[in-house]
Specification:
GO molecular function: protein-lysine N-methyltransferase activity
Order of helices and strands: HEHEHHHHHEEEEHHHHHHHEEEEHEEHHH
Structural class: alpha+beta
Shape: globular
Strand content: 5-15%
Helix content: 40-55%
Largest sheet: 4 strands, antiparallel
Distance between the termini: 43 Å
Number of helices: 18
Keywords: Methyltransferase, S-adenosyl-L-methionine, Transferase
Number of strands: 12
Strand order of the largest sheet: 3-6-10-9
Radius of gyration: 28 Å
Pfam families: Rubis-subs-bind, SET
Protein name: SET domain-containing protein
Length: 561
């Protein structure tokens, strides 16, 4: 970009000052080694200094942002994202990862803006605006239509909002019944990146300090009891307290929670043979054991504090489902991370492409919890946040729903026996002890040694079959080995599909809520297995064609792909 000739020498010096933003992977990151390797594979180090300076290139901002986004997406990735990132990293991450990466870059730019000189500020502001625009464009790509169910009686929710506003809550949301999602938070006006959709004072947050002293004293003999369990027991009693500070909040809670923990026999039968059935059964065994440790002993020893009619198994399960599905982990100004219930905020539903991604820290200046937008939310649109990077099985078990869209965390874990000795440093298989598959996208990159399946998984299969180091030479023995691997995998997937049974084609409108969820989960599992089978057939065709070619040529040596 040309510099105005009338700039003073001082201004020119200011403009030439180097302004840089440092992107660094923390060594304390539990996935440091895996992320470091992926960064290095892409030509980056664990600490990259990006120089932000005007250039004659008209695309200098977008070029710099693209590089920064590549780095930050890896830094912000979790284990599942890293596992599937070996072949085409940018395509294997979801929209939440992109928003988190852009948020991280935006925070670094805003931090630099506060200490930059005037000329640097102009450049950084351009950069800042470009990031916000990119976040806005990301939101425009993934807008889901919000269908409000008319005629729903929301008097209790309106009372809760009024109670909140009377006690310091600031909101630009209203509560409505959303088709397919239940109650949700709807934007009352157009909200842009950085706007605060909801702000809640800490005085309205349900935390462990609310547990009465007498209850704490009664629980002293239970060594190691957590503050979360104390709060759970407190909420079982408090929901029936007509004088509770939070009575209006408890009045808005359902009589029954529809999570996997409340699945009936019919739904469990539908799930037979799936890992979700095992997950639900394990969770319920854990909760039953926890309940049996506490009751009836507490009711017998302290009936005034723990009335038996309020501490039945059914009431305990209700409280567990409340805390699993509605609680949030929040960091307070004292540095302590607390598990809390936050009235009104519980109406913000989960989305794979959320509007709010960073909301877990109390603002010490205002002593409030703020829900700021990371992408725009138009008036009348449901405002969503992210509960975390969870699979549909986890979301069904503890929250009671399947998210809209393709969930990149819907995977099927696979056990592969492969010798771990002789793995060389930097090998893609040496870094992974568990393997998984998910729905594949063959159109991205399908060649002789990649069929839309994750490289760590394929490499481990090759290692399990042959102790010799695998090379991607088009030799007949390599191709024959590849055919055997794909045929073995196809057989495994055929068995999986048989166990899942035929898709339920019956009318599901009159089916109970739990059976509907169970059927939906099995449909997801079928989709994953079906896509892996498609990859196997694609791979077999490619490899067999290549083998026929090699045998026809009958020439010594090899050629590289």
């Amino acid at each position: 970009m040309a510099v105005n000739k009338q700039l003073s020498s001082h201004d020119a010096m200011e403009l030439d000052k180097d302004c840089s933003i440092v992107l660094e992977l923390s060594e304390s990151d539990p996935l440091f080694d895996k992320k470091k390797k992926l960064l290095q594979d892409m030509g980056f180090s664990t600490k990259e200094e990006i120089h932000v300076k005007r250039s004659s290139d008209p695309n200098w901002i977008s070029t710099s942002l693209k590089v920064m986004l590549q780095i930050e997406r890896i830094i912000n990735s979790d284990e599942t994202e890293l596992y599937f990132a070996g072949d085409e990293p940018m395509d294997m991450y979801g929209p939440r990862n992109e928003l988190e990466a852009l948020n991280s870059i935006l925070q670094l730019v805003e931090s630099s803006l506060s200490s930059a000189c005037l000329m640097q500020k102009n450049v950084l502001q351009e950069f800042h605006d470009a990031i916000v625009d990119m976040m806005s464009q990301s939101g425009n790509k993934n807008i889901l239509e919000t269908k409000i169910v008319e005629g729903y009686n929301s008097d209790k929710e309106r009372k809760l909002l009024q109670w909140g506003e009377n006690n310091g809550v600031k909101t630009r949301l209203e509560i409505a019944y959303v088709e397919g999602a239940g109650r949700g938070a709807i934007a009352t006006e157009d909200l842009k990146v950085g706007d605060t959709a909801l702000e809640i004072p800490t005085s309205l947050i349900i935390v462990e300090e609310l547990v009465q002293a007498d209850m704490c004293h009664a629980l002293e003999k239970f060594e190691g009891i957590s503050s979360e369990t104390m709060l759970l027991l407190w909420s079982m009693k408090e929901r029936h307290n007509g004088d509770s500070q939070f009575k209006i909040y408890f009045d808005t809670l359902p009589e029954e929670f529809h999570t996997g923990l409340s699945f009936g026999i019919d739904a469990m039968m539908v799930l037979d043979g799936t890992l979700l059935l095992d997950e639900i059964m394990a969770a319920k065994r854990h909760l039953h054991a926890q309940y049996d440790d506490l009751f009836p002993a507490l009711c017998e020893d302290h009936p005034d504090i723990f009335p038996p009619e309020l501490y039945t198994w059914e009431q305990f399960l209700w409280a567990c489902e409340l805390w699993y599905s509605n609680s949030m982990k929040i960091k307070f100004p004292d540095g302590k991370l607390r598990t809390c219930l936050i009235p009104i905020a519980g109406f913000l539903n989960h989305s794979l492409d959320p509007h709010v991604v960073h909301y877990g820290r109390v603002d010490s200046a205002t002593n409030t919890l703020k829900f700021r937008l990371s992408r725009p939310c138009n008036a009348g649109q449901e405002c969503c946040l992210s509960y975390g990077n969870f699979s549909s099985s986890h979301l069904i078990t503890f929250y009671g729903f399947v998210p809209q869209g393709d969930n990149l965390y819907d995977v099927i874990p696979l056990d592969i026996d492969a010798a771990q000795d002789d793995f060389t440093e930097g090998s893609s298989i040496s870094n992974w002890t568990t393997h998984m598959v998910r729905a594949t996208w063959l159109s991205h990159n399908c060649n002789i040694f990649y069929y839309g399946l994750p490289s760590p998984f394929l490499d481990c299969l090759r290692r399990a079959r042959s102790p010799m180091p695998h090379t991607k030479d088009l030799l007949p023995e390599n191709l024959k080995n590849e055919i055997e691997i794909l045929e073995d995998l196809r057989a495994i997937c055929d068995d999986m599909m048989d166990n899942l049974g035929d898709a339920d084609l019956d009318d599901r409108k009159d089916t109970n809520w739990d059976v509907k969820l169970a059927i939906k989960f099995k449909d997801i599992q079928r989709s994953i297995v079906s896509s892996v089978l498609t990859s196997c057939y694609c791979g077999l065709k490619l490899v067999k064609d290549e083998l026929s070619k090699c045998l026809a040529e009958d020439t010594p040596g090899s050629k590289q792909i």
